[in-house]
Amino acid sequence: MQLYFIRHGQSINNANTRNPEYKENPDPHLTEIGFEQAEYLAKYLKEKQEITNDQAWNIQNQYGFGLTHIYTSLMERAPMTAAPTVRALGNIPFTAWVDIHEEGGIYAREKEEEHRGLPGKPRSFFEKNTPELKLPHDLDESGWWNRPFETEEERQPRADKVLAELLEKHGDKEGQPEERIAFISHGGFFVRLLSAMLKLPWRQGAHDMRSWFFINNCSISRFDIRKGSIMVSYINNTSHLPAALITG
Prior knowledge:
alpha/beta; Rossmann fold; 6 helices; 6 strands; globular
């Protein structure tokens, strides 16, 4: 199995990281730059979708991606990033995977009600904006989150669970072609999933320093998961984006 982790495009929260007057949005939408990044991503993946040489070593996808499945978080910025690629590629299963959401979930940011769980987008939002997306059967107009703030203690077990389910669904099986999976997800969850794959202690670095794996908006990271091994092929590839569209 090949896993391609793609971070969403620039959100309004990302764009205002250094703005002290900005109040964070619980479920931020893409900026104009974010939508532009998503279009560049779609163009690139369409051009590189076909595997042009299935005998050559293709570790940098120089001979194509051959994506077979696309999964997205239900935070607005993720499916809106994924949609142009899904439409460009056509006929590839596009499915919501609730548990690949960003850390914390959907929650209030105002001081007086900080960390209060919020609903998240309702079914009608996704049916209108991303009609190609296969939604959970139980998602209705009450929203997809409707839970308390996700605590620190809940986060790594969620990533561990996602990895186990990914291997069960798409791990290599005797006599079947290799599956190539794309996750459209989030920076914090990327570090959690990487920690799950490599059994890394959360944010622990040498000499009592704090570690982090930074990935840019609409970057691509690749993991090759074979029987008995996980290979980190590359992290944070942004070669498909113009320099002016590389954001964090």
